[in-house]
Design a protein that fits this description.
45% helix, two-stranded antiparallel sheet, eight-stranded parallel beta barrel, alpha/beta
Length: 446
């Protein structure tokens, strides 16, 4: 592949005929970035994130959930200055692995991340990006994949990608459908140094994972990204970890907090975690569980707010591995959490946009938060039922605009095909809508 197309930021924007506003990167508030800087200066955190693999911070920055707001047309607008500041703080504390993808943030994640990193020496940070061809196959997947690969180099104004992933693989069959026409190119570009490490992110069954491991001898996976946390550990995560560990393949972790759910656990469990360690956050328990496993190279966290970044730096700069007793305790906590009637949505947004305008992740987040906080209305017999019913319905209408609520679902199934957690989304939306209708009609126990 010809890498003469690499250009600097100014030349790229000039040639494309666009500015940052056209890319959707305008700041929503011109004072916002400076306010963040001032807040950061007054709330400094000490220490640097530790490294387990040389040159890679154990805490990585997931760039799928960068902060945004809606403009008057309902479009997401991102504050580039805030992204710059967050990444500046991250870099200052040893967070140097940045995970993104062409599909993230409506196609803007790579550019937002690249703009924030541009001032730093290229060798001081690691870029991880992906070929996102989910739903495609054959010639269409190959054509799209080649264009996507080239565009990532343009977006980052670089001649090499540190970690390149085949995005969201589920099996060898999935690999052959989407990457049969691309894998030889990836291997060649790795031999030339344009890809420094080649791997994939995984969402699938144990059998599908083993079928991809069968290809390790042929392609030599340099790393693999999996979902691991203390809820998933006794389902498939421990199995995936062990298979990679015995092959000595470095592991990148996604969803250590299950899309934030493990920083917002049910109230009774939160109280128990706090009683064990009053000085540490609920989220730090989840991060410590994950990072205590020695084959893990970096743990990704989508840090959209300053307090998340500060807390995570605290956890990973003074990292304390879990004891065997703590690991066992957290596995038990995970089993208890699974018994709550929550929907296992991580807020990844892969299901979006819904063609009927439904805010799928927002609905699931609201429902889960109500269950976790104990404000879920489950019976007319519960204390203060009438007040709780009114409060729940009002909160739902405030959180989710009427035109984006669950009752607009027609069960087309488009979202379910894209869900990496394998949630049958239409069924869950109908369940929530039926529940809300009973609350509205005051027939909950009927």
């Amino acid at each position: 592949m010809d890498f003469q197309y690499i250009m600097n930021r100014r030349d790229f924007l000039k040639k494309a005929g666009v500015g940052t506003a056209a890319l959707g990167l305008v700041a929503c508030n011109p004072k916002k970035g400076s306010e963040i800087i001032a807040e950061a200066a007054s709330n400094e955190v000490d220490g640097n994130v530790i490294q387990r693999y040389a040159g890679v911070g154990l805490l990585g920055y997931g760039c799928m959930r960068l902060d945004s707001h809606k403009d008057e047309n309902g479009n997401d607008v991102f504050d580039q200055e805030k992204v710059n500041t967050m990444i500046d703080i991250a870099m200052a504390h040893g967070i140097n692995y940045f995970d993104t993808a062409p599909a993230y943030l409506e196609g803007q994640s790579e550019t937002l991340t690249a703009n924030a990193l541009e001032k730093y020496p290229r060798e001081s940070y690691k870029i991880a990006t992906k070929c996102s061809t989910q739903g495609l196959s054959g010639d269409e997947a190959e054509k799209t994949g080649r264009e996507m690969f080239k565009q990532s180099f343009i977006n980052f104004r670089t001649d090499y990608i540190d970690y390149y992933l085949m995005h969201s693989l589920s099996s060898r069959k999935d690999f052959e459908n989407r990457f049969a026409g691309l894998i030889d190119m990836y291997v060649e570009e790795r031999s030339k140094g344009h890809i420094r490490n080649l791997g994939f992110s995984f969402h699938g069954s144990r059998e599908g994972f083993l079928s991809l491991m069968d290809l390790h001898e042929k392609y030599h996976w340099d790393f693999v990204q999996i979902q691991l946390n203390y809820v998933d550990w006794n389902r498939d995560a421990a199995f995936l970890y062990d298979e990679l560990d015995k092959r000595e393949i470095p592991i990148v972790i996604m969803e250590p907090l299950l899309g934030g759910r493990l920083s917002n656990v049910p109230a009774a469990i939160a109280e128990e975690l706090k009683s064990r360690d009053p000085q540490s956050s609920i989220a730090s328990w989840a991060f410590r569980f994950v990072a205590s496993h020695p084959r893990i190279m970096t743990v990704l966290s989508g840090m959209s707010e300053l307090e998340h970044l500060q807390d995570n730096i605290k956890t990973f700069s003074n990292f304390k591995p879990c004891s065997e007793e703590e690991l066992d305790f957290l596995e038990g906590v995970g089993e208890r959490i699974m018994k709550y009637p929550i929907i296992e949505c991580t807020g990844c947004q892969y299901c979006m946009p819904c063609p009927y305008g439904i805010d799928i992740p927002g609905i699931f987040k609201f429902y889960n938060n109500e269950v976790n906080s104990g404000t879920y209305v489950n019976s007319k017999e519960q204390k203060d039922y009438a007040r709780a019913r009114r409060k729940y319905l009002a909160a739902y209408n405030k959180a989710i605009p009427t035109i984006r609520q669950a009752d607009h679902c027609i069960s087309c199934g488009r979202c379910a095909k894209r869900c990496p957690q394998h949630i049958f989304i239409p069924r869950q939306l109908k369940r929530i809508d039926d529940y809300l209708e009973k609350l509205k009609q005051d027939t909950l126990d009927v």
